[in-house]
Amino acid sequence: MMISSDPSRRNSFQRRIEDGDIVIVYERHDSMKSVKVKGGSCFQNRYGAFKHSDWIGKPFGSKVFNRKGGFVHLLFPTPELWTLVLSHRTQILYLADISLVIFYLEIVPGCVVLESGTGSGSLTTSLARAVAPSGHVYTFDFHEQRSALARDDFNTNGLGGYITVSVRDVQGEGFPDEFLGAVDSVFLDLPQPWLAMPSAARMLKQDGIICSFSPCIEQVQRSCETLRQNFSDVRTFEVLLRTYEIREGRRGAKRNGGPAAQKLNNKRPQLSSEIECEGEESTYVMITPCSETRGHTGYLTFARLISECNQV
Fold first, then answer.
1. 19 is known to lie in a ligand binding site
2. Domains and CATH numbers, the chain
3. Where are the compositionally biased (Polar residues) regions (predicted)?
4. Residue 189 among known ligand-binding residues
């Protein structure tokens, strides 16, 4: 469980894996999977079979082996890892965008947050952890089946107590009146977010903040026009994240070489720490950009509600 209402289990990375827990089976940074532990079951991957019964009782973070010598790591299902393994029912927000959203929406424990739409629940899980243990996230999606699947995921991960999932067309109906003036932050991920912005303004407390995620700049332009009616400090960001792969290699023993080897060695001056002795092997570290760098995902537009006394 990511977060539990039981204080003895809440956010505990030290506790041991139990039957029924969700674990992240980690092979490498681009190969991991969520698995529900069940005694008698078996997990299969390219390294062979791993019995769930061997996992029970081990602490999260353990490196476990199978009979063939293959191994995986059993990690705690944090929101960051869950974002990387969840089922994509819709396009999701990833870690860089999520981090900026939580930072600029000023979300802290105890906040009340409205979200529309829920989608696959990637952002929702991180919002829930940010508001816990005394806050709450109310998330809305017009698609009933998608909402039900997201609700199941949240309950499975131990987040059900911090998230309320509802089926509602916020673009057409707005947010429920029960939230009038009671919300700290609003997040919109909608095709026409400007239709929901007047309703969002009524839900926010004084000095509350809204964020709208849109993949197209035309949506951003329309949203900014609407926001300026009730909001100030309107700003838009595009987060581009570039990751690098770090690998260790090994050079073979040097030989007393001819012209080709001498030419290679003379291409650049060697620092004292780089000089290799003849007849010895050496290691080196190679750092290269990942071949599949994720580019544009969307634009994040933030704005702060204008207090009534400052409105003209």
1. no
2. 22-77 (3.10.330.20), 81-240+295-310 (3.40.50.150), 244-289 (no CATH)
3. 263-272
4. yes
pTM: 0.79
Q: Is 120 annotated as a binding-site member?
A: yes
253-306 pLDDT tens trace: 554 544 444 444 555 454 434 444 455 678 889 888 877 666 788 999 999 999
122 is an annotated ligand-binding site residue: yes
Spell out the residues 6+ positions from residue 178 whose beta carbon is closer than 8 angstroms to its own.
none
